[in-house]
Design goal:
Belongs to the MurL family. Helix content is 38%, strand content 16%. The protein contains 17 helices and twelve strands. The longest helix has 15 residues, at 212-226.
Amino acid sequence: MTKPFVPQSYKSFRIDGYDIEGGVFRGRYTMCGADSADDVSFAETVDFGESLAGGRPDDRLLRLLTLTCSLSYYKAAAPPKIEIAFPTYDFERDYLRQVLAGGLGEYAYRNNLPGALSPEITGDRSEIAEQRPDTWNADAAPLVPVGGGKDSVVSIEALTPLQPVLFNVNKFDPIDRCVEISGLPHVRVMRSIDRTLIDVNAAGAYNGHIPVTAINSIIGLIVADAKGLGPVVLSNERSSNVGNVEWMGQDINHQWSKSVTYETLLRDTLAAYGLNPDRYFSLLRGLSESQIADRFAASPQYFRAFISCNRPFALDAGRRGATWCGHCPKCQFVFVLMAPRLGRTEVEAIFGRNLFEDTDSRAEFEDILGVGAHKPFECVGEYYEAAESMLTILDDESWAGLPLVEQFRSARADLARVAADHDDSPAVEYVPERYRAALDTRR
């Protein structure tokens, strides 16, 4: 694209439909200008490879994938109207409304586009079809998405006796390392955004965070269904339910598609299709990041393989880093959390440096510890968890003398107040008893 892309000139966005051929799914979308000559077309591609076992996926799940992937392209201009060019059920449009409102919260906040969260959604309606019985086998081996971080490692180790199949979207070295260590079977699917979107971003389109976990979850449901597997078992924890900032009367949550709100929405949508909602749940929903870190500390074989930093997972392979960047909120949060659990020598070996030596990052650590501006827009845990860890560090002589550790000594009273301020009420969770027992056994 050579000419500027002016978001305000687009009045509607159309979800055209989808096709699937040879195991390759394409979701098709159009940004509609005042004149058809100004229209911009996009196609999202998901190559399922051999994971479909030669069959055609359930069209209910393909429609859901088409709707969910639309956010990547809608956000380029966020026009006031979305037209769905194929008949949909009322509950499908409601699903899209909720994914837009929650999943694009951070995007709308950063771009100051409150209207982006509530476009008018139009299109022909489908009547609810007669539902056929769901023959899904809840006792079949689970499909466990792997993210390359500590959370999915905890799920892998807990569920190994159930012989899970591991799963991820696209190829990333930290994920491959964790899969190799586990010794479990693995399925990979390749997802590609349209190059045209990258071009319009460079030409002036709006850009920002989308609910990637929602997209990957539905891809996982398609794979599990095609392969005759059991549930898709996520590793989203209680902390992901907590948002980052209040804006326009809404809780803006970077981790919305990891939250129990989205988990409930997707389960309810599956049920509306006549599918068993237990096809999808998060094993770790009842656990805090601190509790997950405690469990991860018992799996030293993964210490030098896992990475929670975003840099090695950039979609553009040319922008990927090989290891922890040491500067982002995810690196900083995991460093604080694991420091008292693994000890100074081990965390320095994992990160390749000691992050408490960098006094320029004090403000970022303050945000993580709950004594700064607000929770960073990243997948980090709650304030109290980081504050608890920092208090333990302050009392450990092996950390004494490090610049940031010494600077935070004067904030001990504030850290203590933050550490004491948290909600211990049970989290809403949907973990079936069989899986709850597997998790409890690994304590």
